[in-house]
Amino acid sequence: MEKLAKSLVAVLILLVAAVPLLGQQITAQPETIELRARMPENGGWSQEFIYGQVNVPIKLRMTSDDVVHSFALGQSSRPSVEIFPGKFSETELTFDQAGEYTFYCTRWCGANHWRMRGTIVIEGPAAAAQPTSVPPLFLQLGLDLDAPHLAQIIPPNRPDTARARGRTNALPDGLTVGDTIWSKSPEALWKDLKADEALDDQEVWDMVAWGLSLQGSPGWLAQGRELFTQNCLACHGESGKGDGVMVRDLPPMNHDKMGSEATRPPDFSDPAVLLGASPALLEGKIIRGGMGTGMPYWGNIFTSEQIRSLVLYLYSFQIELEERP
């Protein structure tokens, strides 16, 4: 009997020890959530909010009720998932920190496509205190994103990085400090350099192009082009003229009344538009959106590096930029 009792005690101890492990296995099983995509006019995402727990997988089973959509997670390198009518696509997500995560559609489905956004709310233990984030530069500078910013000085020819590098091996000091370049428009940089450098107008513009080229991480050109094509082209147009298929029925932008009504995007083929805008200002417009103009906000969709690449790509409509080797 004593031997039997000891055996029973041992079994009970093993069972008690196993219960937490079994609980972990049970709670770690992915929760399957059906998510239906519809054009915004038809209701958008079937669930605007999805709830989950830290380190507990969420399995999304997705289909479309009308046209082809896609599912993408903001500020993430995860590839988007195509969602087709009459078929189900699946993806599994696991978050290691509590917080709110934005999901969105990358397939243009109509004029209100940008409303195809939702939030995944992850609950769990509070994350360790993070260092206070630095506000975007446009906030630090107090920029008015809706104020007119057209350049008054236009280069004789398209500014070209290669021409500048062919003339000299070093940039002027004013073009070597990142925040200095990011806070000033190309026109303002040109004015600063023109006052200090014994160069003709075009040579100074070429120096400005070179300085801007050094502001991106390796691969920024391809990344910026991809972001523009996927998220901006339908409104801004392939050549940046603001004539995309989604905005052709809107009135042209009035630069003296920016932010007052939904209009076509600015015409990036006009050198005055981009050469008068600082990188910080363009960054702010991307982060905040166009307010009343109809441009959506992208601050919780793109990473800071993606926004930087996109800003530099926009300048490529007017300036010959080169990536750093």
Quantity of strands, as a count: 8
Which CATH class of the largest domain applies here? Mainly Alpha
Estimated share of beta-strand residues: 5-15%
Query: Please, how many domains?
Result: 2
**What is the H/E string?**
HEEEEEEEEHHHHHHHHHH
Which structural class do the helices and strands define? alpha/beta
User: So how many helices?
Assistant: 11
CATH-defined architecture of the largest domain: Orthogonal Bundle
**Shape, per Cα inertia axes:** elongated
Q: Can you offer a commentary on this structure?
A:
With 325 residues, the chain is α/β, with parallel strands linked by helices. It has two domains: 30-123, Immunoglobulin-like (Sandwich); 137-315, Cytochrome Bc1 Complex, Chain D, domain 2, CATH 1.10.760.10. The chain contains eleven helices and eight strands. The protein has helices spanning 2-27, 137-140, 161-167, 178-183, 186-196, 201-213, 220-231, 233-236, 271-275, 279-288, 304-315, and strands at residues 31-37, 49-53, 58-64, 69-73, 81-83, 89-93, 99-104, 117-123. The strands form two sheets. A five-stranded mixed beta sheet has the order 2-8-7-4-5, with no helix packed on it. The protein has a three-stranded mixed beta sheet with strand order 1-3-6, with no helix packed on it. Strand 4 (69-73) and strand 5 form a beta hairpin. The relative contact order is 0.12.
